Amino acid sequence: MLCKVLEPRQNYVLYIQFFAPFVGGMSGYYVSSYKDQKRNETRYLSVTQFEPAYARTAFPCFDEPAFKATFNITLGHHRKYVALSNMPVTKKISISGRKNWLWTIFEQTLPMSSYLVCYSVNDFAGLKSQSTFSVDFTTWAPASAIAQCKYAAHIGPRLLDYYERIFEIDYPLPKVDQLAVPDFSAGAMENWGLITYREAALFYAPEASSEVDKQRVANIIAHELAHQWFGNLVTMKWWNDLWLNEGFATYVATLGMQELCKKWHAYAEESLENMMVVLNSDAYHTTRAISQSVSRASQFAEQFDPITYRKGAVIIRMMHMFTGDMTFRKGLNCYLKRHAYGNADQNDLWRSLSEAAHKFGSMPRYLDVQRVMDTWTLQAGYPLITVHRDYVRNTMSINQRRFLIDGLGKTMEKDNSISKGCWFVPISFTLARRANFTATEPRVWLQCDSQVNDIPLEARSPLGAEADQWLILNVQLTAPFRVNYDTVNWRLIIKTLHGGDFRRIHTMNRAQLINDALALSWNGHLCYKIALDLLRYIKQEHAYMPWRAALDHLETIYRIIKQTADFTLFQNFMNDLLRPIYVYLGGMETQSKGHHVAHKTLINQWACRLALSDCRKRAVQYYHRWFISNDPDLVNPVPQNLRSVVYCAALRQGDEYDWNFLWQRYCNATVASERRLILQALGCTRIVWVIRRYLEIIFNENSSIRKQDISLAFGAITRSHIGFPLAKNYFMNNFTLLTKSLESNFRELAALLLQITQHISSPHDYRELKMFIDCHRKLEKLATRSVRHAVEHAQVNLHWRQKQQSEFTRWLKARY
């Protein structure tokens, strides 16, 4: 109660005495630590992680994104430490009465949301970037690891410069600090001026890390620096529009990587990766709309999922495609300038882009961005576009309905509420005779009426397509939908793919055709004969993206069929497909002849898993060359780009001594990417008692495995045929222990549950799952959508095994 009545139009300053416990965990203001190998001692640091709503645990504040404020930060610490925060240091003052202690005072911040405040006290070394840019760019890490920051220090300023050019807005702060945090729950965090990272997301060691590790570091840095505009300069008003931050950062990062690292083909490959994640994860009943109401702090965490990041990125790319590059850039520039240092919602973005689209004539006047995009952000799922051609009358019809992975939406009669859904869909297409896969702009729009019902498109076949010419929709996967053609059109496509000129079809569309055909067969929309006849062309395919799409879906079938008597049949089928590409890429030879590293890794992982050719033998040879040396100071002779394959294959074939050797290398490893790789490989062993011991190590409170890596290690065990039942039983029988180990983080527990349910496909395992959830209602209450999604995964697997597997194996038996 105040001692007097406050008078209007007067300024008052409120002083609050505030205390909070300074403890472990990985949120709020917390303690982290690392091992100083030279001195063999543990060193400590403090750091913050305030997103989404943990600033309130560190200081009194209005802890919501719309309450932007300036912050004046002062940190007290011993002079042997470095103090960092969002802004540069203005001065340091000795603390009266405390020898060798300082107050470090920072400049006042720009107006920003509380979740972006960051500060740390540590004994790290700083690596200043050598560049001509005006912004002071420094990367911080333990002195023993600072050499691993050279790549991050090199790429960061160049990405920042690129973003300044494409957004036409200068980065507004005088500095950027990048800070490696040993214990960190997120992959990275975009705090304005002081970006924090997991060590594996920032460190790259040329002598130990792979090319894939290098690309991952670049991608994460590109994502966080894009946030300096999307999220920091302009922030969403509330957490329902988190996708405005994360979707944009995910998409814009692909543009940055493509500009600076063209050899990775990052734009196309990341776009395909995002699209596949969306088409898989958004096809469940338990999915959600991108923008949805959230009211409780406990719900915020569930927003940080593939729908926010990946689907956000996919629909932004779609918008970029249908508005055109000039409109897109000018619209974003208007949006950023109009709302700089403030907050916005998706309607503000639509408004800026619509104004630009109509100014440059890139959208028809009867459409605006909001009318189109609301259908993609305010409802869950995505459409299945069905194309029927009348080859006699030379006409075609196109209609849409929601695609569901279990096939229950296959017919409208089954459940109208499930299948109902309508999207404004930009339809691009090309034809066999005049194949043009560069024209990604929409030729026509599939639209909805005022009651949001589908308006089917009936038209003469475009450009007078002859009856023997295929038609392909969605050029370069511009929009997130699946396409099902009539049987004749599928057969025309298959004929071309099996011919010598299959490359006439764009690489992304070859990947699309494979992914769509297999997904449509999974739920009964398409017969497996057509899908697998199409897939057989891949024996002559050398490009990465079609293989990535094929193996992504076949991985799901592998998880189910490896538990059945049909596995040998599946193994023969897969080895027949893989043998030509395995040979073409050089097998387990270290020289990849300029081939795509991720492609070679992917193919070799499958080859060793399925005992193709000499893959396992060569992997074990590499590993034993290292094992026999038994010298911790010897440079690892296993080539960096083959290590993920070699380690797993060797442990799959090896004994307990092989496992112990790799575990010891994990404990001694100083390269973050190597530690991450070894953690996953340790789960590949087939020795039951070793797996049980590894499970105990993973969840041991005093384990050398950090809490943020528990999910990574546990997931590796679930992927093993022998490890899966052991991991499942351990999770269900020790749930109370796991809850304590993960500090009651029910979202993380639900993520572990999902790793289990992805492999459940038998009625017995499903009954066990249901009984477990019935006994642990608190888990479902605190992570409702995550748990329901995990259960639905198991239901979908069970449905395929009961309804579709017989058709799949009939085709295999006929061929193999």
UniProtKB/TrEMBL annotation:
Chief localization: membrane
Site (Transition state stabilizer): Y309
InterPro entries the record matches: Aminopeptidase_N-like_N, Aminopeptidase_N-like_N_sf, ERAP1-like_C_dom, M1_APN-typ, Peptidase_M1, Peptidase_M1_aminopeptidases, Peptidase_M1_dom, Peptidase_M4/M1_CTD_sf
Record-listed Zn(2+) binding positions: H223, H227, E246
GO cellular component annotations of the record: cytoplasm; extracellular space; plasma membrane; side of membrane
Protein biosynthesis listed as a keyword: no
A biological process from GO: peptide catabolic process
Cofactor(s) required for function per UniProt: Zn(2+)
Peptidase M1 membrane alanine aminopeptidase domain span: 151-376
Catalytic class of the enzyme: hydrolase
Binding site for substrate: E51, G187, A188, M189, E190, N191, R747
Domain ERAP1-like C-terminal: 470-795
Annotated catalysed reactions: Release of an N-terminal amino acid, Xaa-|-Yaa- from a peptide, amide or arylamide. Xaa is preferably Ala, but may be most amino acids including Pro (slow action). When a terminal hydrophobic residue is followed by a prolyl residue, the two may be released as an intact Xaa-Pro dipeptide
Membrane topology summary: Lipid-anchor; GPI-anchor; Single-pass membrane protein
Family: Belongs to the peptidase M1 family.
Protein name: Aminopeptidase
Organism annotation: Drosophila pseudoobscura pseudoobscura (Fruit fly)
UniProt gene name: LOC6902764
